Amino acid sequence: MSRPLPVWRSLLFVPVNVERYVEKAHARGADAIQLDLEDSVPLAQKAEARTMVREAARRVSTGGADVVVRINRPVRMALADLEACVWPEVGAIALPKVAGAVHVRLIAEVIDELEAERGMPVGTTKLIAMIETAEAYFEAREIAAAHPRLVGLNLGAEDFAVSTGMLPEADGLYVPKMTIVMAARAAGVLPLGFIGTVADYADLDAFRATIRRSRRLGFRGSSCIHPGQVAILNEEFAPSPEEVDHAQGMLSAYDDAIAAGRGSVEYRGKMIDVPVVERARELIAVHDAIAARQGGSP
User: Fold this and answer.
1) What are phi and psi of 93, to 5 degrees?
2) Alpha carbon distance 76, 73 (integer Å)
C-alpha cells in the first residue's frame, strides 16, 4: 500500500485549554502541534475545551505546523470531540485506546459525514491510531490497515504498561514497539514513537540517544510533551548531511553499474545491491520531503 504521508518528525502535545501553552506553540518548531482533549484536560473542563479547538488550531498553525487533535476514548465523548474538531484547520485526529480495526472505521464514518456537512473534501482529516491495551496489541496489523484516512500508528507506552502490568521501560517495550513498526510498515503508514516512554523528558542527552536508536530501528517521528524535545526529534529523525551524501554517492555508483550491465557494485568498501539501494532511496525521499516541508530545495 502506498499513500502520501506527512512529515511528522515531532508532534508536540499542547493542552488546548491552557492559554500560555497555546500562545507559544506556533514558535516551538514542531512539525505538528497535537492539541490535547484527553489526558491533560480534566473531566470537568472537557466541554469548554471543545469550544476552544478551532481557534486554537488557527493560532498554533501560524508557524507552519500541522494540527492534530487527540480526542477522548469513551464513545460519547469521542463523538462530541469529533463535532468540535472536524474543521479545515485540523489536519488529523489522534485516536487513543483504539479497540480494533472496526473502531477506526466507525470513527472514519463519522468524519465522512461531518466533512460532507461542512463542505470539506471527504478524506481531508487524517487519523493516527494509538494502541494502548494488550487486547488491541494483537490486532496491530489490522488496525494499521483499517482505513485510507490512517497515516500513522503508535503505541502509548504509559497506558500499555498499565494494561500489561509492566513498567514503561525500554526492555519491556522493545517487542511491542517493534511490532508497531512492522505493522505500520506493512500498511504503508508512519511508525510513530520510540523505544521508551514520552513521560521521560528531563535528561535530554538520554532522550537524544533514545531517539537516535529508535530511528535506526525504523521509527519516523514521535510525540513529545516538552518543547525542549522538539529540536532533538527534528534533528534525529532527519537524515544527516553525511548520510545524504553517502546515499547520493551510492545511488550514483549503482546507476553506473546498472548502465554497465552489473547488478551490484562496491562502494566505499561495501558491496551494494538492491536492498541497500532501496534503503538509500528511502533516505533520500525522507530528506527531500523534509526539505520540501521547510520550503527549501532537496
Assistant:
1) -115, 130
2) 8
Mapped onto helix, strand or coil, the DSSP state of residue 131 is: strand
- Please count the CA atoms within 13 angstroms of the CA of 249 that sit on its side-chain side: 11
Enumerate long-range contacts of 13-21, CB under 8 Å, 24 or more apart: 13/40, 13/70, 13/198, 13/223, 13/224, 13/225, 14/56, 14/60, 15/40, 15/41, 16/41, 16/49, 16/52, 16/53, 16/56, 16/69, 17/41, 17/45, 17/48, 17/49, 17/52
For the stretch 19-32, pLDDT in tens is 999 999 999 999 99
Q: What is the C-alpha separation between 221 and 214, in angstroms, rounded?
A: 9
Give the global pTM: 0.93
Which of 72-81, 106-115, 165-174, 251-260 is the least confident region?
251-260
Stated as kind and residue range, the H or E segment containing 266 is strand 265-267
Taking the C-alpha atoms of residue 110 and residue 170, their distance in angstroms, rounded to an integer, is 36
Quick one: which of 203, 195, 190 has its CA closest to 157? 195
Q: How confident is the model at residue 298 (pLDDT cuts 50, 70, 90)?
A: very low
